[in-house]
Give the backbone structure.
Amino acid sequence: MDTARDLVIEERKDSISTKGKHKKQLKCDTDSVAGCVSQRACVYCGARVVLNPITDAIHLVHGPIGCASYTWDIRGSLSSGSDLYRNSFSTDLKEEDVIFGGEKKLAKAIDELVANYPSKLVFVYSTCIVGVIGDDLEAVCKAASQRHNIEVIPVQSSGFIGNKSAGYRAACDALLRLIEPQEQKIKKTNSINYLGDFNLAAEAWIIQNYLKEMGIDINVTFTGDSSYDALKKAPGASLNIIQCAGSMTYLAGKMKEIYNIPYLNISFLGIEDTSESLRKVAAFFNNKEMMARTEALIERQTQKVLPVIEAYREKFAGKKAAVYVGGGFKAISLIKQFREIGIEVVMIGTQTGQKDEYETIHELVDEGTVVLDDANPAELEKFMVEKGAHLLVGGVKERPLAYKLGVAFIDHNHDRKHPLGGYVGAVNFAKEVYSTLCSPVWKYVDSMGGV
Ligand code: SF4
C-alpha cells in the first residue's frame, strides 16, 4: 500500500467487493462522510430531486445561494402545465444571518414570493447551515401558512443528518403532509399512482401511454409533471407502482399503512425489465382482456426495437462498462440492459443501494466484477483502470472523471434531456452508447491516461 488513495480504499474495504468464490456482505446505507470525499449527492439534493418536479409549487431554498444552484437548468423534468417549478428561489443566507438567525429573512421571502407568484403550495428546503444555526422552519412555515391561507411545508433536509436517502425520506414526509386526506377516498378501478418517475425528457408520458393501451389510468405521478391538486387525489388509486425504489419505497410503505394501497416494484429500463414490469402490473388487476392487450403491446414494441438493438450489439463486441448511479433499481436494470446490447459490466456501484439490491446485483454480475457502495472519485478511477472499462455510466459529477480518463460517458441522471425509459428509451440508450463509445475522438486520446 503506497499511496493516499490506497489508504482510503483500505479504510472503506467493507463497502467494496469483487464477485468471486466467496460472497461478501457489502456495507451500505452508511452516513455520508463530511467534505467532498464522496460522489453522493447531499441530503438536501436528495429531497430536491424528489420534490422539484411538482410543477405549480414554489420551491424555496433556505440557505446560502450556492445550494440553490441545484436547479431546473440541470434537470430534464417536463411539465404539461405550470412552469413555476423552473424557478429556484433562495433566501441567500449571509454571515449576519448565520450569527443572528435567518427566520425573519425566511418569513419575508415567503411573503414576497406568495405576493409575486400565486400558488397554493410552498416547499421550504433546509440546508446544511440551517441545521447548524437551528432556525425553526416548522414555526416559520406554520405562521406563513396561516397568514396566506395556503400550504407552506418545511422540508427537513439539513446536511449532516445522514445521506442522500435521508433527503428522500424528508421529501416523502413533506409529501405525506400534503396528501393526507380529511376522509378516506373511494378507490377507482384500474387507476394507479406511479411513484419515482420525475418525467425526465417525458418518460412518465411514455409509460402513461403504455398503461393507457393496457386499460390503466395514472391517477398521479410522484412527482413528474404533478401538481398540488393532482397530489391531493393520491389516496384514490388502487395500486402504487414504484420505479425509483430508493426514493419512493418509504412513501409507498406509508401509503399502504395509511390508505391501504398495495405497491409493486417495477422498472421501465431496458426491454426485459419493461416487458416484465408491464406484465406484473397487468397481473395485479387479474383481468384476461388487460393481459391480452399487454401481451400485444409487448410483442409489437419488442418486434419494433429488437432489430435496432441487434444492429448496435454487433458494434459493441469486447466492450466493457462501469456503472455508478443513484439507486440500486437502476443499477440492476443497467446490468440487464448492457447484456441486451452485448456489453459486460465490470464495475458497478450506487449512492443509495440497499442490502437486498446489492444481493441481486451480486447474483447478476459476472465473476470478477467490482461492486461498491458510496464510492469516491479515487475508487472509481482505480477500478475503472484496473478492469479496463471503455465506458462509464453516471451523473453530472462523474462526467469529468470519465473524460479525464479518456473513456466514453453516458449521463443517466436528472440532467439528461432524452428519455431512457420504455422501449423507445432502450433504443435511445443503445444509440447513445454507440455515439459515445464508437466516437472517432477516442483515437486521439490516450485512454486511461488523459489526452
Ligand atoms: S445543503 Fe450543504 S452539502 Fe448540500 S448543497 Fe447546500 S451546502 Fe452543499
